[in-house]
Write a structure and sequence with these properties.
about 140 residues, mainly beta, Metal Binding Protein, Guanine Nucleotide Exchange Factor, Chain A, eight-stranded mixed β-sheet, three-stranded antiparallel β-sheet, globular
């Protein structure tokens, strides 16, 4: 998919993502669930992302490997950005016109609470697998 445009709720931040991967991920970690009140459904947008209204974007360092960005005006969750690669993951709901989406991976699958489940068959990574992966990247 290419050239997907979106904006925050109030319109202060506009985003153009040139490369949106239709295979989206779901993260069940406590940080993501606290941030959004639910698991984080994210599309991978790579590094070719243009942001207008950057003065309205606040970054929060949520782990040693990534930061989260949100609009300071309306609070919209804009992205999760990896430090090492500068790649963006963005909430799938920010792109209502994407077609052909497929849930591909669930992160922190061992942290998923018992009060929800998905019927989709996906790849999964546990906390130990994710920590080992990012330790190798540093």
């Amino acid at each position: 998919m290419s050239n997907s445009e979106t904006n925050c709720l109030c319109g202060a931040v506009k985003i153009v993502a040139e490369e949106v991967n239709p295979k989206f991920t779901v993260c069940h970690c406590q940080s993501c669930r606290t941030w959004g009140g639910a698991p984080f459904f994210a599309v991978k947008c790579g590094t070719k992302v243009k942001i207008e209204g950057e003065d309205k974007v606040k970054m929060y360092e949520s782990s040693s490997w990534a930061s989260r960005g949100f609009c300071t005006e309306c609070g919209t969750h804009l992205f999760y950005k990896f430090k090492a690669t500068s790649e963006y993951n963005m909430p799938v709901g920010m792109f209502p016109n994407l077609n052909g989406l497929e849930m591909d991976m669930q992160y922190f699958s061992d942290m998923k609470p018992s009060y929800y489940c998905f019927s989709n068959e996906t790849k999964e990574m546990t906390t130990a697998e994710i920590m080992a992966y990012f330790a190798a990247e540093e």
